[in-house]
Structure formats: structure tokens, C-alpha cells
Write a sequence for this structure.
């Protein structure tokens, strides 16, 4: 089974911008609330699947001037 990842942001605008950019690029993703255990983030995350996508997400964000706080593995215990 592939690993799920959460992209964390400092503000909602960056989160929604990355979600839209990933959708336009044909990358499977979804937006959800941040897990309670994750502190000091804007309240939303972008979720995606597959370790092979991590660098592609960082590259896409950089090309669109979107600031990612961190990408973490989704442990599923929100």
C-alpha cells in the first residue's frame, strides 16, 4: 500500500493555491482539515499518495511561488 502524505502550510491561500495547481497538473490530491496533533499550521492540508510524488509536489510549489511549511507522512490518527 502506498504511503499518504500531508502538505502543511502557514496560510490557507498557499494551501488552496497548491491544491489548484496539483489539480491542473493532473495530480491526485484532496484538501482536508489539519490533524489536531499538528500545531502551528493554517488549518488545512493537501493530501496526496506516493513517495514518488513528494519531490514533484515541492517542485510544483516552487514553480508557482507557493510556500510549503512541511510535507509529512499521514499517520491516519487525526
Amino acid at each position: 500500500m502506498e504511503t499518504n502524505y500531508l502538505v502543511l502550510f502557514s496560510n490557507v491561500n498557499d494551501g488552496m493555491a497548491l491544491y489548484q495547481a496539483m489539480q491542473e497538473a493532473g495530480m491526485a490530491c484532496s484538501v482536508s482539515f489539519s490533524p489536531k496533533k499538528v500545531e502551528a499550521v493554517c488549518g488545512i492540508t493537501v493530501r496526496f499518495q506516493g513517495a514518488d510524488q513528494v519531490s514533484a509536489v515541492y517542485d510544483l510549489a516552487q514553480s508557482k511561488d507557493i510556500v510549503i511549511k512541511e510535507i509529512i507522512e499521514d499517520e491516519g490518527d487525526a
In short: The chain has one domain: 4-74. The first strand starts at residue 4 and ends at 8.
